[in-house]
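FW: tagging you since you asked about this chain on Friday. Here's the raw sequence from the shared folder, copied in full. Didn't touch anything.
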Amino acid sequence: MSQYGYSLLQPDRMADPNELLAGLAGSEDTRVLEGFPVVLANALEKHADKVDLDAALASLTDENVRERLRRLTALSFFCSIRSGMRSSRRGPERPGSSTSRS
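HL: got it, structure written out here
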């Protein structure tokens, strides 16, 4: 997880971001769940071409964990929008947004 900005654990190797996100969603540890938005944002920033949320969902057999992954993902995107975070890969901010004002 530390390679994606949440250093609760030290990685032995580069984790597959889809496996990592699915694993986080299955955790009962609140510290891990709190880090989900950070890990998702950093995974998208560093390895957007490898992040496949459909694959992460498909790897989960428990419907409750799949629903948690959906909700954590939605919450993460909502928080990033509300906080004004944006990827350097995206285009310019919308006119009138808080980061584009003079």
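FW: DSSP finds five helices and no strands in the chain.
HL: agreed, and The chain has one domain: 2-83.
FW: great, closing this out.
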